[in-house]
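Same chain as my last thread, 175 residues:
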Amino acid sequence: MQLYLIRHPAPQVAAGVCYGRTDLPLAEDVAAAAARIVPQLPPDLPVFTSPLQRCRQLADALHPAPRSDPRLQEMNFGMWEMTPWDRIQREALDGWAADPLGYAPPQGESVGQMQERVQSFVTETRRQGLERAALVIHAGVMKVIVGHAQGLPARKWMALKFDYESVVCVNIANP
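reply #2:
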């Protein structure tokens, strides 16, 4: 299965603020972003999207009936959401850095938990027999999918970087 992974446009949020599951609006006109992305996609792709508005609005501009799935949401940072990174306790950040797959911020989820739900979506989508699809998603979700597709160890895929509005094509092998 071939997946076109599309990161949402920049959201309205101050620099240096921790956000993931927070449902932020876009910082720019979605039509302009869609116009830049459409030429990078094959025609008539089914589109799946995170239900968060920064993805959903772009998905709506790319397809008349995108399918929303909560498993495609960004990581839930719990009590860290909308807190400047420099105001999160150093020992908490050190705990996360020491065990990112297992450590969950208070009332949030770990990277490992996010990875499980994203891989569940990919496995289910592959079983539907789709040959290709577009996913309008978040950087964290892109990291999980690209890391899985390329067989990268966790430390490598967690370090991947994706710009806003980037489009990355990956092939997901059948089991």
